[in-house]
Structures are given as C-alpha cells and as structure tokens.
Amino acid sequence: MTSHEYRVMLSGGVAGIDRDVWNDVVRRCGGTTFYAWEWLAAFEEAPPGTFQPAHLLAYRGDELVGVCPAFLVHHCPRLDYAYSLSAAPGLRDRGPVLLAHSLAGLIGGPLVLPGHRDAAAALIAGLEQAASVLDAWAWGVANLPAGAATGLLLREGYAVAHVATAYHIDTTWPSPAEYWSTLPGRRRRKLWREQRQRAEGLVIAETRLDADTMVRLAHDLLRAHGTPVDVFPEAYLRALHRHLRPYERTIVAADADGIAAMFSGWQFGAEWSLWIAGLRAARYAAFEPYHSMLAHTIEAAVTSDTRVLNLGRGNAPIKRRYGAIGTPLFLALKSANRRHDALLHAWCRQLEVRSQASPDGLDVVSRCC
Amino acid sequence: MPERLATADARPSILCVSGRRVVDVLGEMGVHTVFLSDPTPIDLACLVDLPLDLDLDDWAATEAVVRGLHDARPFAGVLSVYDAYLPLAGYLAARLDVAGLALPAAFNCDNKLRMRLTLEAGGIAGPAYAVVGDPDEAAAAARRLGYPVVVKKMGAAGGRGTRLCRSPEEVAAAVTALWAETSPNLLVEEHVEGPEYAVQTVTVGGATEVISVLAQHTATGARPVETGYDFPSGLGDQGEVRLGAFVARALRALGVDSGIAHTQVRLGPAGPAVINVSARPPGGRLCEVTEAVSGVDMVRAAIEVALGRPVTRRSPVAGHVMYRCVAFDTAGTVDYDPGALAMAGDGPACLSVSMDVEPGERVLPVDHVDGGVYGRVVVYADTAESLEPAYRRAVDALRPRLKRNGT
C-alpha cells in the first residue's frame, strides 16, 4: 500500500513488529498505553472476543513514522452490544469489521510523528485497503478523540457516533496545593470533607497489585453493577497485567481485611491512564473510597512525571468536580457501498442518541465502558 | 365497445420531506410528489399526489414504506429543506440509491461539532471552540478563548440555540438555558469580530455556484439574531469571488455535492471564518431576495438538481436590496397599521412588507434570549439611492410600536 511519499504495511500481529521501534514511535507521537506494543501483545494473547490482528505501519523510506493498531473483529461483546442498539437488522451478521483498534481502549486511530500529518491519511486509506484484503464489510476507528483525525474521517464520509467521553486532568502543577487552589474554595472544602468521611479506616496508597486481586476486585465490581464479565475476561486481565507490568500504576484502598478497592492503570510516556476499577463490593457497595482514591491519584500524578491523568469514561459528574475536562470519543465506520454506509450512519445516529442520554456515554453500567 | 385507454403518468416522482413552498413549486413543475410528514397538514395533503403520515424518527420503518412505493414507481430523488429532516432525506436517498444530499454532508451540517471538525480537517477556518458539558467547563473554555464567546447547541436549533456572552455570569446562564439532558454537550466558540455575509449557493455534481452574496446585520445582544441584509454586499466583485471560492471549499469539505446551501461567513482579523452552513434555503425572505438579484429560485433549483435538470435562470429584477427586520428594544404589546402589509411600492422601488405577529400580541426585545424579529421590510430597487426613501415610507406606513409591559 502506498500513498505518495508514505508506504503502509499490514502486519498480522505484534510478534512480527520490533517492540522497541514501535514503542519509540508511539512515545514520540505522544501515544498512550493503548498504543503500546505490550497492550497489543496482551490483547492478541487473550482477546476479549474474536479478534484477528491487522496492524498498519506507515513508513517514509525505511523510517517508521506512524502506526495504526487494528483488528479484524469477528466477535466483540462491546461491539455486539452496540449492534444490538440498531434498528437496522443484521449489521452483525454481515461479517467481520476492521476496527482500529478496540472499544476496550480509551483511544484509537492513527498515530503519526510530528511533521507527518499526511501519514495519518495514508493510514486511513490503508485501513480501507486492508479491509478489502481481509474481506471486512466495514472498517473504521473506535474511541477516536475529537480532533484532526475525526475531521479527516468525517470529511471522508465515515458514519460517526459520539459514544463516550474520556476525562483528563492536566497534572503539570508544581505541587498538589497549587492543583487544589484551581478549584473553587467551596467545592474544594466539600471534596476534602467527602474524602475524609468516606475513607475512614482505609489506607490509600499507590502500589503494584497481584493479578489475582486485580481480577477479583474488577469482576466483583462488574457483577455488582450487573455487567457481564465477558467484557473483561479473566485471561484478558491476566495477560494485560503481565505484559503491562513495567508501566503499572495502581491506586488501592486497604482496610483491615486487605485491599478493598483499586484504580488500575498504566503510565506510558507522560499519560497515566486509569483503565479499570475494582471493589470488594460486598463491603463497600457505594464505592465509598472513590473520592479519596481519586484525590490520591491526582496528587500522585502531580508529584511525579505525569503530565496528563486520563480518568477514563464514566462518573462524569465527580470527575468534573475535580477539574477534569471531557474529550468526546467517536466510533467511525465506513463501507464500500452507499446503501450500507447509510445503515452505518443510521446506526451511529442511534448510538449517539443513546450515548448522549447518559452523561456516562454508551451505557456504562452495561457493556461498553 | 372500445376500452378506455389509461393515460400513463410520465411525471418524474420526488419524495419530499418539506413544506408549503416546496410543494407549491413541485406542483408548478408538474412533479409527482410523495410527501412525508408527521402528520401532514390538511392543506398540503390536498396539494400532493400521495401524503404519508409516518413516524419520521423511525428511519427503518419509513424506509420500508417508501421502498415499496419506489419499487412501484421509482423516485428521481429525495428532497428536504428542513434542517431536522435533512439527515432522513439523505438516508432515504442513499438507501434507495437516488439523487439527494449526501448523507455525510447532512450529518456534518446538522451537528456543529462535526461541522467544525470537518472544516478544520479541510483547512477551512472557523472560530476556535471547545466542547463543554457543564458551566465550569464552559467558564474555563471562555477564559481560554477570551470574551466575548458564543455558547451554542451542537444540534441545529437556529438562533434559539445560540447565546453571545460577555461575562462568566452570562456563560453560566447560557449553559443553564441551553443544556438539555438529551444533548448534554455544548460548544463554546470564539466570537469572531468582523462583518458577516450570507452566501447562497447551488451545487451540482460537486461544483458550487454562488448565486447571491448579502451583507448581514446581526444583533449584538444575548441572541445574535440576524436583523437585516444588504445587496450588493459591498465586497466588490473581487471580494465576492474570493468569498465564493472560500464557501465552495467549505461545502466541498463538508461533503455537500449537490443541492442548495446558505452559508454564513465572518471576515475576521485573521480572514474569513465559517460561522454556519445550512444545506437548505435560507429563512425569512432571503429566497425571495436571492431570486430578485440572481434570477434563481433556490427552491426550484433544489428540485431541479434532485431531478437532474439544469437550473432555471431568469433575469435579475433588482440591482439593490435593503432588507430590514422589525425588532424591538423593549418588551410589550405590538401594534402596527395592517394596511402597510399590502404596500407594493411605487416609482423606482418595490416593497415587500410582512409581519409574523398580529396587532395585540406580546413581543420581546431583540437582545432578549427568547426575543427575535417579528417582521420584515424588504425594498428592491435599481439604484441605491431609491432604497432608503422607500424603506422610510414603508416604516412610516407600518408604524410598528409597542405598549410597554403594564401600560
């Protein structure tokens, strides 16, 4: 695949890609954990569904200048749930779609080095060509943040739905005190009060978590919300835990019986992405330590090399009270057929209506976040 | 006894989700019209060939019904001139594989964030903006962008979805007023200082022709409603050509490959900036003005594009137009002389006077968030000098006036 000065290559999995070269490009592009070679390796090892790796790499000459992780999705519980919201019958039955790269990540789409803006267009064109090679009836990007790439896809006629919002906090403050001073005084005092009252008897700390505890707490919380655990199968969580160990940053709340709650995440480059929460739900049904853990996370980010704290999707009202800014995340899809494209547009319209009916996006307590 | 021969109805057929004016023109053009509405007003039902009352929010069900009709008598195209139904019309056109506004274009014009993102990707300038979900985010965005700012709904809501804010308090009030549970995100935009222009276009096969450029007057209060227009625009031939080329690029970026559009552009300190694009005819009496100065009836043009016919062009009948809206500085009960509504002008100028309210109705000031304009006086003339005297005569005859609240 070529696009003027850029050559786009299709890779059937990260095993065939040099980890250091890939991660170096991701870092220089400002990419996050969800683009890391290790994230993709874990996803390929124990996918939460049936995914065939189909990553795209953009080269200028012999230099890797952009990446676009992607999977041919045969079955994905999150995507199936989204399909189920469509009034157009049979979208799922049309066959696999090529998606860059997963609704499980907090971000997706092409990532290119500064000065190589056209490489993003080449990767998008490559996605279409790869879809044809792989017999995907549709192709697109999941959780694409509002920005230049979204505009590019809108311009190309992609069906687009705002399916979620990720919340970020700028953590480049010199000290926690200066961060807290940015919040209105009344709100700050109220938040501190909530942190104290709800975390009584709990110790909040940043630590590394063993896989058993991570899986148990994550699944406890999912079950407490009536969410099927197939969105985070045990093998998938264990694979992520193992592969992403070098980047792990987890905040826990512990009581006399051990670890009661967690915010599990990873820092890759300057962004610390909190990806999954867990809770001993039988004891703390209302996630009592939430405020204290969030405050501790923010302070830990401010006092380390973190520049951006990605708090992920959901719980928007609380995150906003701490000064988090929302970034809309889009699902964008296209097909080679005008009539099929119309179905995708109609579906995206329904997804967006559904998503915007909730401040948490596309049904957070069900299957999509 | 010889059988009576059935007369074949060879008229082209259009599927239409529009209003009275479109139906009238379709009738004049001899087009077989299937009319979708929810429900169809009785006067329109009498004018079209087949009125259909459908739940137009249920696209799949609507498609099922019109597909059956299309199989029996194919539609040449699908047409809407209402913002709310442009995506549906684009969807039906795509599903039936007939002429109509491209569905991505309909969505890109329907949602202000998509419009901004798409235009940015196409290298088309617009106001700097931020997506916000609550008053705190909006206040932070306004601080970053600098006052004044415009707070607007993302979906098409006309002027009622837009507030011009000059302080944090006004931003907070605007967010509270515009926020809706079903549409929880708003845009906060930089207010681009500079003159504004309304550009009317016809696009056929991706090629855009500018058919009128009007200088636009906009209220400076909380609701930036349009209060008047002038033709010529004052930009001169070169300026209009540059503006037209800018608008054509914007439409191409948005994917508008066929049909008519009304685009508002401000000439700011950094150059032209797209304020809004509507893939439909403009409101008020701007279609009438455009036809007078260009010879192109935008509604007829939309139908002709959908039918694949050349756009009808007549000779322009006016070289100068002064269009002023009737608005009030205070709230009250309106009164005016209805006899003025029949004025047609005399001598070198033609007049069109209309009011949207009856004498005795309540009106609000133009800078009130729920206020607006309540009528229009439009003067057509061959010379600029003829405009002002004719306008004065019309206003003197109309004598719009208010009784203040409680008086």
From TrEMBL, chain B:
The lineage of its organism: Bacteria, Bacillati, Actinomycetota, Actinomycetes, Streptosporangiales. Keywords: ATP-binding, Ligase, Nucleotide-binding. This is Carboxylase. Residues 116-307 form the ATP-grasp domain. One of its GO terms (molecular function) is ATP binding. It holds the Pfam family CPSase_L_D2. SMART domains: GARS_A. It comes from Sphaerimonospora thailandensis. It comes from the Bacteria.
